[in-house]
């Protein structure tokens, strides 16, 4: 059997697990509820407390260490779900916009460094390839004959 603890703003309401009989609380209840099962703490300051309730010779004890805040807003599950879905839709919309804008730019040439406008001839001839890196042609393998793989 467990205590039921409800927190709303700075008000903490604790319900004793005892069901029948007269319920007494330790420390004593300042604002007793209708049936005595609930222990209500107004303006709780988040300081830890030991509480116990007893009924018909049976005692239930608990250690209360709850954090409360004065300016907190409670959100229900529907509000949180709406926020998450709206965030996902906005993110998806941004992704689609970026995709379509980048897709349109693929075919166009940029005017950055090293590029030239279409139709204009190159002013310098292309560089001559380095002769040290000539491709191997048939019949010219003698230069590379000493590079055969060795067996270990």
TrEMBL record:
<keyword id="KW-0472">Membrane</keyword>
<dbReference type="GO" id="GO:0004888">
    <property type="term" value="F:transmembrane signaling receptor activity"/>
</dbReference>
<keyword id="KW-1003">Cell membrane</keyword>
<dbReference type="GO" id="GO:0045059">
    <property type="term" value="P:positive thymic T cell selection"/>
</dbReference>
<dbReference type="InterPro" id="IPR015484">
    <property type="entry name" value="CD3_esu/gsu/dsu"/>
</dbReference>
<keyword id="KW-0812">Transmembrane</keyword>
<dbReference type="GO" id="GO:0009897">
    <property type="term" value="C:external side of plasma membrane"/>
</dbReference>
<dbReference type="Pfam" id="PF16681">
    <property type="entry name" value="Ig_5"/>
</dbReference>
<feature type="region of interest" description="Disordered">
    <location>
        <begin position="105"/>
        <end position="140"/>
    </location>
</feature>
<dbReference type="GO" id="GO:0042105">
    <property type="term" value="C:alpha-beta T cell receptor complex"/>
</dbReference>
<dbReference type="InterPro" id="IPR013783">
    <property type="entry name" value="Ig-like_fold"/>
</dbReference>
<protein>
    <submittedName>
        <fullName>CD3E protein</fullName>
    </submittedName>
</protein>
<keyword id="KW-0732">Signal</keyword>
<keyword id="KW-1133">Transmembrane helix</keyword>
<dbReference type="GO" id="GO:0007166">
    <property type="term" value="P:cell surface receptor signaling pathway"/>
</dbReference>
<feature type="transmembrane region" description="Helical">
    <location>
        <begin position="77"/>
        <end position="101"/>
    </location>
</feature>
């Amino acid at each position: 059997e467990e205590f039921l603890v409800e927190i709303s703003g700075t008000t903490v309401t604790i319900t004793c697990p005892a069901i029948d009989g007269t319920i007494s609380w330790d420390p004593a209840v300042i604002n007793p509820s209708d049936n005595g099962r609930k222990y209500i703490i107004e303006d709780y300051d988040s300081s830890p407390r030991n509480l116990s309730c007893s009924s018909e010779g049976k005692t239930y004890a608990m250690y209360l260490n709850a954090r409360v805040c004065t300016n907190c807003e409670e959100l229900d599950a529907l509000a949180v779900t709406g926020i998450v879905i709206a965030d996902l839709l906005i993110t998806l919309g941004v992704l689609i916009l970026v995709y379509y804008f980048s897709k349109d730019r693929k075919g166009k040439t940029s005017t950055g460094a090293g590029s030239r406008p279409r139709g204009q001839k190159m002013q310098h001839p292309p560089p001559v390839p380095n002769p040290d890196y000539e491709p191997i042609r048939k019949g010219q393998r003698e230069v590379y004959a000493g590079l055969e793989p060795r067996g270990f």
